[in-house]
Every structure is written in C-alpha cells, then in structure tokens.
Write a structure and sequence with these properties.
The protein is an alpha+beta fold. The chain is built from 4 helices and 4 strands, in the order αβαβββαα. It has one domain. It has a 4-stranded antiparallel beta sheet, with helices on one face. 35% of the residues are buried.
C-alpha cells in the first residue's frame, strides 16, 4: 500500500494537479466571447480523465492504477468543504491548494490554458495543449472565479510568456495550480500584458 501511495503522489504531482468543487450545473459556455468582459473559469480534472479533449488516450494500466490508489488516499488531499455549500463568487485565487493531486486548468474566452510536466503528452511550453473541454463532458468540475476585460489575444500572449517568466514545470514550485493561480490573478486585476521575463541572476 505504501508503494502505491508513493507512486500516486509522484505521478499525481508530476503530471499536474486540483482546487475545490463547484455547485452542480455550473459550467462555462464553450464558445469564443468578444464581449467587453468575460467569465474566468477554473477547471478541476481527475487524473483518470487527464487526456480528455486532447485526442490522446491514456494507457489503461495507468488509469487503473490511478483509480485504485486515488480511491484509497485521494480524499485525504481534498478540501473537506461540502461542494453544495461553495459559493463561486466567494472563491479567490488564494484559495487554490497548490499541492492537490488532481489537475487544474483555466477556461477563458473560448480557450483552455494549463501547465504540466508533459508526460505522455505534447509540450505545455505555450501554456496550453489546446484541450477541447467539450469532449470532457462531466470529467471537469468548473468553478467561476470572476470576470476580466482582457482579450483572447492578450490571454494567449500571457500563456505563451509564462515559460519565459517562470521556467520549466516544477513539482512543488511551478505546478499546474500555481500557473492557474498566477493567470487568474492577472486576469481579474486587469493586468492583461504578458508575464515579464525572469531577471537573469
């Protein structure tokens, strides 16, 4: 059991990560928005559904291992709050748990943005893998985080600048939750410019 727990922790954090559940029925409209202001959605994706909307298929031995181990210990790393009591309007980027064992992504103006290690998948270097969340069905739990007047082009430039600003994926210091937290904070505050490049040491 200890071996399975260690495997789950390693694989879970290496691939990406997850925040709090949202009330049933909450989900974005999957279309490009040109309105002056648009909703910012936080997506929470279980690892067994990690490949949904990407055109890739996760090996069954991998999903079976994650599912079995996740049922045993996954609940220990999630919030204890009753999802029915969560008010999306009360949630802030600071409430994201940076070390959860699920995967976090952002949906804004018809596009999804996310960060990960790239195992079994294409590179996350541009802050997206062009996931189509429509093909995930109920596999993603959505939470409305706020609204932003940033444009889709500005959001894409933000995503593309993330790697230059913060470097490679890192298990504890630059995982998917931290990416989403930084992205949401910029969008909500109307800081629509790209992330500034890291200053050389």
């Amino acid at each position: 059991m200890l071996l399975y727990s260690i495997l789950f922790l390693f694989v879970g954090c290496a691939l990406g990560c997850h925040p709090t559940a949202s009330p049933p029925g909450e989900a974005p409209r999957f279309e490009v928005h040109h309105d002056p202001i648009a909703d910012i959605w936080l997506g929470e994706l279980e690892f067994v559904n990690l490949f949904c909307g990407t055109g890739r298929i996760m090996p069954s031995i991998f999903t079976n291992t994650l599912d079995t181990v996740g049922q045993a210990i996954g609940g220990l790393f999630r919030r204890s709050a009753n999802p029915a009591e969560v008010n999306p309007a009360d949630l802030t980027p600071e409430e994201l748990n940076r070390y959860k064992l699920d995967h976090s992504l952002l949906y804004f103006r018809g596009r999804s943005y996310e960060w990960g290690a790239g195992m079994f998948m294409r590179s996350f270097i541009n802050g997206t893998i062009n996931r189509n969340p429509v093909n995930c069905g109920s596999g993603i739990t959505w939470t409305l985080q706020g609204r932003s007047n940033c444009t889709v082009d500005q959001a894409m430039q933000m995503a593309h600048s993330y790697h230059r600003a913060f470097g490679e994926y890192a298990l504890l210091l630059n995982n998917c939750h931290i990416f989403v937290e930084r992205f949401i904070e910029k969008l909500i505050n109307g800081h629509c410019e790209p992330f500034p490049a890291a200053t050389p040491l």
